[in-house]
Amino acid sequence: SSLTCPHCLKQSNTFDPFLCISLPIPLRQTRALNVTLVLQCERWRFVRVGLAVPLRGTVADLREMVAREGCVPPEQVILAELSPRGFLRSLSDPEALAAAGEAGPVYAFQPPPARRAVPRPEEPRLQPSTARSSDCLHRAPGGRILLLLCNTAGTGPQLARFGPPLVLREERGVSWEQLQQNILAQLRGVLRGEVRPPGTGALFRIRLAGGSCTYLSPQDPRPLCHPAIDRALQLSGAGGPPHVRLTVEWDMSTKERLFGSIQEEAVQDAESVRQQQQAHGQQHSCTLDECFQLYTKEEQVRALPT
């Protein structure tokens, strides 16, 4: 047994005979976690990758791993859990990684590139009798926010998510009609029916995800300036850009007319998914030499206070 003082580096060696010895067994330090990347490219827009995440790691570790897989800066990665019924929660960096992916699959969103907002002509001031509560919060007409959206159809037990989850960057002062058109433009790849011309009413409802029953109103001149949007931005966790999760709710007849029988998005599995499942699916084994290496591993002994 060798003991070295960290201050004076004096070393003490003692020799003890062993007739028997109890060896520790090294345990697996990682687990397999599949993450679906939602990237800003048409060819690899939806791809599921397999990662070996540390058992005692944090979401910050997962963000770094996803950033390397998607070749994007870590500060641009948005991590969220989704279920077959919609959004569950967003993941923030300080959270422990042990529970990630248990409630639902993990998705990693890459926001669209920021572009310079085009200045708008000054809008007429609203009279107090027609002003809404959200108007007073609209301090920056050119401000833009990130929106995560998922589409659902049905009610009660039949409620189900369909189509791909979306991420888009919108101006806070956008009207309902323009927001609706922008959402439909993101869904053009899965639309199959004719869409009514703009200005003929709302095709869907938009609800703030996360246990809230707050709906954005089509009659609001600036629906993204709702006070609930401000609260959601303030509660956005550490890590990744601030964002708001929204659920787009369709009635079944409109969904069938425009999308047919489409279910969830089609995701391509990368080779790493099979590799991680194979590596972590096998029974963990170790050699006697690995047990000895763990037993003789150097450790820091704390000095008792005098």
From TrEMBL:
Name used for this protein in its record: UBP43 hydrolase
TM spans (from-to): none
Species name: Acrocephalus arundinaceus
Superkingdom classification of source: Eukaryota
Region Disordered: start-end pairs: 108-137
Alphabetic keyword roster: Hydrolase
UniProt GO molecular function: hydrolase activity
Keyword Hydrolase: yes
SUPFAM superfamilies associated with the record: Cysteine proteinases
InterPro entries named among the record's database cross-references: Papain-like_cys_pep_sf, Ub_carboxyl-term_hydrolase
